[in-house]
Amino acid sequence: MFRIGLGKAQITPPWRTRLAGYVDRAGVSAGTHDHLWARVVILEHESAGWVLVVLDLMAISSSLLEKVRQRVHAITGVPLWCISVAATHTHSAPELDEDVEIFISDRVEKAAISAWENCVPGKVGIGFGLVTGLACNRQSREGYADQTVTVLRFDDLQGCPLCVLVHYAAHPTVLNQYNLYYSRDFPGVAVDYLESKLGSSVMAIFINGAAGDISTRYTRKNSTFSEVKRLGSLLGEKAAEIAASIRTEVPSQVLVTRSIVEIPRRQPMAKQELLRIKDETLCTLDSLQESGASSVELRELQSLVEGVKLVLKREAVKPTREGPVKAELQVIHIGIGGGFTIAAIPGELAALLGTKLKTKTGCDLVMGYTNGYIGYIVETEQQEFNYEVIVSELAQEAGEYIISEVNKLMKEIEECL
Q: Is the dihedral of CA 21, 25, 30, 33 positive or negative?
């Protein structure tokens, strides 16, 4: 028998914290605009199962991953490696420290208990569509971007919706470094729209994709909460349209496999070179500001300066480590239709790499920011001296290496079918 369990809990810290996501952000949180949440989905099929925990955070630290997995495992008995913990990547969530992580883990435990205690027989279906005007490649408006919206709908056996999971790849960075309020950014608007449209008994979830170089830089009119609502509504409306057209069925199986891999590490640029890039970029910025350049043109260079600052700060706090970067890759297979497979990646894949991964491995969905955080994974041909290239700690062949390793996991899944 296939069963579905759902639970959620607020994870907004009841105290003031620094917010994650912008190196130039000053001060601590000023309050809450919209609450942050933990959302839990349990899929159980006979002796196998998968648990998805989605948190409205910028990233999942290794310590938080361990805490959450241990709590969920204790409740459900699902093996640790069959539990996925993903961040939506909002840049208006708390920085993680021990107190914040314990608080979030406590809240996830409550959500997991609710999900486990309320598992019901169910069905799953999938639909696809395209959204326009929400996000695009942030290095170039004409650059590659995947505008696909994927929706998974979970029903009870009578066909009544229980949960709608929405996948779209983009940085939730409508709100900039001057925002000091907790917020889910545009994904929160999309989720709230779906829940209001489908009814209070239906849980909606957002998961991010290969969003390394995708954002609202060229599509947002400003960085206000009204603009968050406008852009988030585009996603919510499209997801609702897709969800209404989905037909669900009882999955034949749920399979999970994973591997711990070692990804080649790239040595950072010398400090003098970084300072040179920073100084030259600041000079160019001054000239552009004097000439009345657009905010988009300025933002491209400002992000480059932020990248240099981030690397300098990182190297000052934690000098470069030697050796490869360890990462967990995970593949989840849901037996509906011809089979639907998700690859979970612990970082920020460039959009073109995400599409290459699907094409070369046969997986259907790339879930980013999941089971840890290894930073940006850039395309081999990606231009030098942009934000993603500068801050990445991974060698440029890392993307192709990850694709190769995911392909091995896909073959393991195939052997079990």
A: negative
- Please state the pTM of the whole predicted model: 0.95
235-256 per-position pLDDT tens digit: 999 999 999 999 999 999 999 9
Are the C-beta atoms of residues 163 and 41 closer than 8 Å to each other? yes
* Closest residue by Cα to residue 331 from 356, 353, 362: 362
- Summarised one tens digit per residue, pLDDT across range 345-401 is 999 999 999 999 999 999 999 999 999 999 999 987 665 678 888 889 999 899 999
Helix (H) or strand (E) holding 355: helix 351-361
Residue type, 235: L
What's at 36, amino acid-wise?
A: L
Q: Which H, E and C letters describe 181-212, residue by residue? A: EECCCHHHHHHHHHHHHHCCCCEEEEEECCCC
Reference 413, options 336, 317, 340, 349; nearest CA is 340
Do residues 208 and 168 touch, judged by C-beta distance below 8 A? yes
Taking alpha carbons only, the member of 86, 150, 148 closest to residue 124 is 150
CA 351 remoteness from chain centre? 13
With both helix axes pointing from N to C terminus, report the angle between 398-416 and 351-361 in degrees, rounded to the nearest 10: 30
Chain-centroid distance of CA 213 in Å reads 13
Distance (Å, whole) CA 416 – CA 409: 11
Token pair recorded at residue 321: 């480590």
